[in-house]
Amino acid sequence: MASILDFTGDRFERLASWARYLYWCELHRQRFDAWVESGIGVDDDRWKFVALLSSWYASLWVVIEGWQQVPLADAAVDEFLAAAPKYQDLLKRYRNGVYHYQPRMLDSRLTEFLEEGEGAVYWSHLIHEEFCRFYWELFASPPIPASLLPEFRETMIGIVGWIPDTIPAARVESLRQTGREAIAMLREAEDLTSSAAQGVLEAARQSEAVAGDTELRMRAWKQKMIVRIKSEADNP
Each residue of 181-212: pLDDT tens digit? Predict the structure, then answer.
């Protein structure tokens, strides 16, 4: 797993620039998701739906483009990218249709990707999540003293604007961290045998079990989605 300390000099700036585009993309997705969750039907305001979706999709292509140009590498991200090169091509055309003036209201650049249906929708959401997971993992366990990590993270947030701490992988790690902290406190208090300590230890074990099970379910689900995306991309 890569660490933020693997990036120095010009490579760090290229990474930070990529992360900034990812943050902008995340803001577009949040606006789109909030509109969807508001319960407003597409038929009630279809052009706002298209506008918000298009801003997210177009910015997502820029993140993919940056991933290739930095360049960056991650097994899960690259697997999703390789699963559907057709979607990458269509998303690039979609970005061009959104951010380059097109005189036709229904230019093919704007319709082809949308016409791909659920496969393209799932792929867009999942590749976005994998980008966020990759960025978060850079700060998950860098080889620096734990006391310096908060300041280090705040510095990066000041540069980029954000670190994605609410993604599923972050929540799983939070469960594990809570258990580790509880055990460390008991050891410091030299109390591992009292009934209260045993209760805390059991809670820590349960947290680890839940975290592990969640992780396995996430991996299985991702593999299932990769198979589905490949199938739908090859057979629209």
Answer: 666 666 766 666 777 767 766 766 777 776 67
User: HSE of 224 in the Cβ direction (CA atoms, 13 Å)?
Assistant: 6
Answer whether residue 134 shows pLDDT above 70.
yes
- 165 and 23 in contact (C-beta within 8 Å)? no
Domain boundary among 109, 144, 179: 144
For residues 69 and 128, membership in a common domain is answered with yes
> How far from 4 is each of 1, 74, 85, 177, CA to CA, in Å?
10, 14, 28, 20
Look at residues 46, 67, 53 and name the one whose alpha carbon lies nearest to residue 113: 53
pLDDT (mean) for 210-218: 76
DSSP label at residue 101: -
Paired tokens of 121:
């929708």
% of the chain surpassing 70 pLDDT: 88
Predicted TM-score of the model (pTM) = 0.84
User: Residue 219's domain spans which residues?
Assistant: 166-236
What's the number of domains the chain is made of?
2
Given 80, 110, 144, the domain boundary residue is 144
Cα dihedral 165, 170, 176, 179, rounded to 10, equals 30
Residue 83 φ/ψ, nearest 5 degrees: -65, -25
Do 119 and 173 share a structural domain?
Answer: no
